[in-house]
Amino acid sequence: MKYEGNTHVYAIDNIDTDRIIPGKYTKTLDTSIFANHVLEDLDPEFAQNVQTGDILVADNNFGCGSSREQAPIAIKSAGISIIIARSFARIFFRNAVNVGMPVIEVPRHNIEPEDKIEADLSQGKVHNITKGEVYEGTKMPVVMLSIFNAGGLISYLKKHKTYAPS
Amino acid sequence: MGKTIIEKIIANHSEESVNAGDITIVDVDATMATDTTAPLAIKSFEEMGGEQVQNSDNTVLVIDHASPPPNEQVANLQARMRSFSREQNTHLYDIGEGIGHQIMIDHKHVRPGQIVFGADSHTVTHGALGAFATGVGSTDLAGIWLTGQTWVKVPETIKIEFEGKLQPGVTSKDIILYLVGKLGISGATYQSIEYSGSATNEMSLASRMTLANMSIEMGAKAGFVDTEGLVLKEPFEHIQPDEDAKYSEIHKVNVSELQPQISIPHSPDQVVNASYVENTPIQQGFIGSCTNGRLEDLQAAAKVLDGKKIHPNTRLLIAPASKQVLHDALEDGTFAILTKAGATFLTSGCGPCVGTHMGIPADEENIISSSNRNFMGRMGNSKSNVYLGSPSVVARSVLHGML
Fold it and tell me: Taking every annotated instance into account, which residue ranges of this chain make up the domain Aconitase/3-isopropylmalate dehydratase large subunit alpha/beta/alpha (chain B) (predicted)?
């Protein structure tokens, strides 16, 4: 699966789930509310500026803090096609895969604002078209890849009804 | 090869004899979801085609985050939790019963050596009992409701030995804040932590829960407090690591010289000696949360505030961790001491820690809280500043109007 788009780069570590979607907006099943407030305490203009297909880029430990699945859903609902981070917090990464929000861990990269990026999840590589560079991503465990390829955990379990399909 | 605690517990729940790094499928003993995460889990469960929740007798729903509901939208989601619980014969603890993690332990939904998944990151609190308990999102939880199982990657383990004797007024909160400051917000990501040493052996269950609770503030998947010295009503099996268990890191911390600790805005790992920020003006104090809302926490605050009044420029909000804590505080006089000193008691539950309602600070205000996170906007206003400390530190700060 390939994702190509313009980037929103936040070159900071530890962007927590409270900044991705504050707790006060999480008590709903209406994902448009998440999309309207996504990342507002980090960048109040993000929700207005983001275009469908854009790529979010961050540094280490992205999504630390709460287990709220509303965090990856908020980013997905806002139209972001893939999140590239140097590392992810554990629960966020698992939630993202479960809800079908593409994520790739790329420890070393040189992505700057305005760079045009193509991320290839099946190859585990990120291509910086602007700079002509290629970055290696960390491979996902097989079980996560199966869940992601099914379109998320709901479709995976709807089909298999078990974590150990024969 | 010797095994750590988490390797033993996961192996006991899996068909394989696993070690760190392995991925395996485990049988789950119990689950918990809150009013923040259960409605989404119910939706996911139905979309998976779920009809009957597996192990419904060990499935717990708790209305603790926005409790009682601040608006009709939240009220309707909570009503859905109640109807789902009736349909599926699960447990449901309604408004005012308390915080999920407290309820799980008090009502024995979790036992030493078990595996518990909760749709709340502070599920790690149950490590105080020697259970493997961790937080997941709503859809992962729905998957456990559907199958009774989930997949886990067996984490490596960091061993922390706390030796020595705490000074009066210094608590397990100060110990864990110190450690979060030392290891950092991602210092234990994807790992488990084993806490042991002479200092933990003497701790109450409540203090042990405070330690395990903030393991997630270092990114840990689980935090186990050595069950040596732990007293429960029923006998239980103490799961100990093997002598030749392999650790990714070992740290020894002498707690005898430790001073009260404070985490400064806007990250739990920005930790300093309390004296370093003294004289910082404070407008609101909060005592409560799954970290420090238990009877010994309220008693510690009452010890500071007995016969005194909080500073006129401050408010003190207290949300007991459970209805039982409230009853105990009423019976032993703690409640009266605190209310006479000027404290306002809130419904047992998460209270203002999650920034949904009941105590959202104004712009530029400084809050001292006994809770676990001070991320920007955590308490509902990104223009306020949240400091974290022990209940004694909170009480002292509201008494003087400054840290």
Answer: 7-274, 277-401
Q: Dig out the tokens for B273 from the structure.
A: 């000696």
Q: Is the ipTM of this complex over 0.90?
A: yes
- Packing angle between helix B205-213 and helix B295-305, nearest 10 degrees? 100
Give the mean model confidence (pLDDT) for residues B249-270: 97
Query: pLDDT tens, A107-146?
Result: 999 999 989 999 999 889 999 999 999 999 998 899 999 9
Q: Is the pLDDT of residue A166 over 70?
A: no
Q: What is the tens place of the pLDDT at every residue in B125-154? A: 999 999 999 999 999 999 999 999 999 999
Contacts of A162 in chain B (CB under 8 A): 147, 149
Task: Indicate yes or no: CB of A90 within 8 angstroms of CB of B138.
Answer: no
How far is Cα B119 from Cα B310, in angstroms, rounded to an integer?
37
Place of tokens 């465990």: A141
The answer to whether B64 and B35 are in contact (CB under 8 A) is yes
Domain boundary among the residues B202, B235, B257 is at B257
Which of B375, B381, B386 best tests the A interface by mutation, with the highest count of A CBs <10 A? B375
Rounded to 10 degrees, what is the CA torsion of B349, B354, B357, B360?
Answer: 130
Query: Which domain does B46 fall in, by range?
Result: 22-150
Backbone angles phi, psi at B181, to 5 degrees: -65, -40
Domain A2-159 belongs to what architecture? Alpha-Beta Barrel (3.20)
**If you average pLDDT over residues B342-363, what whole number do you get?**
95
Quickly list H helices, B113-193. 138-147, 172-183
